[in-house]
From TrEMBL:
<dbReference type="InterPro" id="IPR011104">
    <property type="entry name" value="Hpr_kin/Pase_C"/>
</dbReference>
<dbReference type="GO" id="GO:0000155">
    <property type="term" value="F:phosphorelay sensor kinase activity"/>
</dbReference>
<dbReference type="GO" id="GO:0005524">
    <property type="term" value="F:ATP binding"/>
</dbReference>
<dbReference type="GO" id="GO:0006109">
    <property type="term" value="P:regulation of carbohydrate metabolic process"/>
</dbReference>
<dbReference type="Pfam" id="PF07475">
    <property type="entry name" value="Hpr_kinase_C"/>
</dbReference>
<protein>
    <recommendedName>
        <fullName>HPr kinase/phosphorylase C-terminal domain-containing protein</fullName>
    </recommendedName>
</protein>
<dbReference type="InterPro" id="IPR027417">
    <property type="entry name" value="P-loop_NTPase"/>
</dbReference>
<feature type="domain" description="HPr kinase/phosphorylase C-terminal">
    <location>
        <begin position="9"/>
        <end position="81"/>
    </location>
</feature>
């Protein structure tokens, strides 16, 4: 079973995928780009294909935009892509709780994946996303 999710970004860091969700203009592409600057690899921008492989949900580039990431006010950048099992959902939410106790959960293809809501408008966002992956992401 597989599906393509629109309006999400996804990067791989240390072999684990971070699926980035949020409303229009919330900064999904900007976070993906900032994480790429910290060593992540692009899986998909403005869409990602998810497939169940055994017990894992694996993220792969969507066929229509594979290798492209939007840089707002600049244009589209072509980059290499990766594939990885989804370890965490990073949801960009201006109402994110300041000090949550633990994390939430998202359902992807019938599998529960940790979800962390992050306030999107901060220069520390890529650091927070990377910390969320390390603290709450699936191995």
């Amino acid at each position: 079973m597989s599906t393509t999710l629109p309006n999400v970004s996804c990067v791989a860091m240390r072999g684990r995928a971070m699926l980035i969700t949020g409303g229009p203009g919330s900064g999904k592409s900007s976070l993906a780009l900032a994480l790429m600057d910290r060593g992540a690899e692009l899986i998909g921008d403005d869409g990602v294909t998810l497939a169940q492989v055994g017990e894992l949900v694996v993220a792969t580039p969507p066929p229509n935009t594979e290798g492209l990431i939007e840089i707002r006010n600049v244009g589209l950048l072509e980059v290499p892509t990766a594939r990885a099992p989804v370890a965490i959902v990073i949801n960009l939410d201006p109402d994110a709780e300041r000090l949550p106790l633990g994390h939430g959960a998202a359902m992807l293809l019938g599998k529960e994946v940790p979800q962390v809501d992050l306030y999107p408008d901060t220069p520390a966002l890529p650091l927070r996303a990377e910390a969320a992956l390390e603290m709450h992401g699936l191995d």
